[in-house]
Automatic annotation (TrEMBL):
Protein name: DNA topoisomerase (ATP-hydrolyzing)
InterPro entries noted in UniProt: Spo11/TopoVI_A, Spo11/TopoVI_A_N, Spo11/TopoVI_A_sf, TOPRIM_Topo6A/Spo11, WH-like_DNA-bd_sf
Taxonomic placement: Eukaryota, Fungi, Dikarya, Ascomycota, Pezizomycotina
Domain Spo11/DNA topoisomerase VI subunit A N-terminal, chain residue ranges per copy: 89-151
Keyword set includes Isomerase: yes
Gene3D superfamilies attached to this UniProt entry: 3.40.1360.10, Winged helix-like DNA-binding domain superfamily/Winged helix DNA-binding domain
């Protein structure tokens, strides 16, 4: 059986930029305390809001969603007591999160954005999105990823398939025997079909950072036989170069999810080069896939194949076409753009579950589709 075999040789990351940031912040506070009236402040860089499609390296043909060059860097300074109650509240939130990060770094422990320590101050933060924004802005300001701040996301993604992971403790995680996805993983016909062995990964909707990092790692290994992130990684590659295929709903969210995996997201465009899967191809589900299967099965206009767009769908498609360079007229994915325009023109979308009713079910459809690639 062809497998990926990964043996982690990762060492602890260097936290000097993080410690330097805290040292500078402490010195600025001490300087203020020496004054008659202290005016404490924290300045954070704001992540960009203008994007383009770019190559991560001059020698690379890959393309990612990246920051647009020449846009002035934005910074926000939050002070205490501040000019407004809102500023004082934001300063308090930032200072609380900074203190938790500093404690985690000092004690070499990991915390999650949803851990009890952070959630205990939910009345201060208001919502989880406030915590997420502050943590990401701190990481962007320091110039590191969240892991360097000892803040991690609780991964929601799942994976199963023909690969094994060997940990530093020499424990082998054999993902080829782990049953995760009810519809596909349990179906031995699909996993052992003519399409070949494979790895199934789901982010359960929009993928979190952990899932995207894992897909990027597999992509790096498959295309470069190395990892730009995990130095010293020992790899036993498969005998054939894997292909990366996306199976998503044929709606605006499905296309947006696929774009996030391949090109990155606007929220983390500055880190796209470490989160993308540039060889990703669209397996389905397109509107025409459903129409073809509908005709194949003799279903003449039945309701199961037609789902009208909601007001939110229309608004999101318009936003994607207008603001995301992946879907622009001169963007890299004209087929994706055309699919979004077709949705708008026909006022319809397609869910992958529709294919359950086709010949051989969803698994049979996947096998037929992959044989045609």
């Amino acid at each position: 059986m062809d497998t990926f075999c990964l043996e982690s040789a990762m060492t602890a990351s260097e936290n000097s930029p993080v410690l330097q940031f805290f040292e500078n912040l402490q010195l600025s506070f001490l300087d203020e305390f020496d004054k008659g009236v202290a005016q404490l402040s924290v300045t954070l860089k704001k992540r960009p809001s203008h994007f383009q499609i770019a190559t991560p390296h001059e020698s690379s043909e890959d393309r990612i969603l990246a920051m647009e060059p020449g846009v002035p860097e934005r910074k926000m300074t939050y002070s205490w007591p501040g000019k407004t109650p809102q500023e004082a509240w934001k300063f308090s939130c930032i200072l609380r999160i900074l203190s938790l990060i500093f404690e985690a770094v000092q004690n070499n422990m990991l915390i999650t954005k949803r851990c009890r320590t952070l959630q205990g101050a939910v009345q201060l933060f208001g919502t989880q999105s406030v915590v997420n924004t502050i943590v990401d802005d701190i990481a962007y300001t320091v110039g590191v990823d969240r892991a360097a701040l000892h803040v991690i996301s609780v991964g929601k993604g799942l994976a199963a398939g023909a690969f094994r992971i060997m940990t530093k403790a020499k424990n082998c995680l054999d993902m080829s025997v782990e049953a995760v996805f009810r519809r596909l993983v349990h179906n031995k016909y699909h996993l052992n079909s003519a399409a070949g062995k494979g790895i199934l990964i789901t982010g359960k909707g929009y993928p979190d950072i952990c899932t995207r990092e894992f897909v990027h790692l597999i992509s790096d290994i498959a295309t470069k036989n190395s990892s730009s992130i995990l130095r010293g990684l020992k790899i036993t590659p498969p005998t054939a170069t894997p292909r990366f295929l996306a199976l998503v709903d044929g709606d605006c969210d499905g296309v947006a999810i696929m774009s996030t995996y391949k090109y990155g997201s606007m929220a983390h465009a500055h880190a796209s080069a470490h989160l993308n899967a540039p060889r990703l191809e669209w397996l389905g589900t397109r509107i025409k896939d459903v129409v073809i299967e509908q005709n194949r099965n003799g279903n003449d206009g039945e309701d199961w194949a037609m789902i009208s767009l909601s007001h939110r769908d229309v608004k999101k498609v318009r936003s994607m076409l207008a603001k995301n360079p992946v879907f622009s007229e001169d963007g890299p994915e004209l087929e994706w753009r055309a699919e979004l325009q077709t949705m708008m023109m026909l006022n319809m979308k397609a869910e992958t579950e529709v294919l359950y009713g086709t010949g051989g079910g969803l698994e049979g459809w996947i096998d037929r589709k992959m044989k045609d690639l």
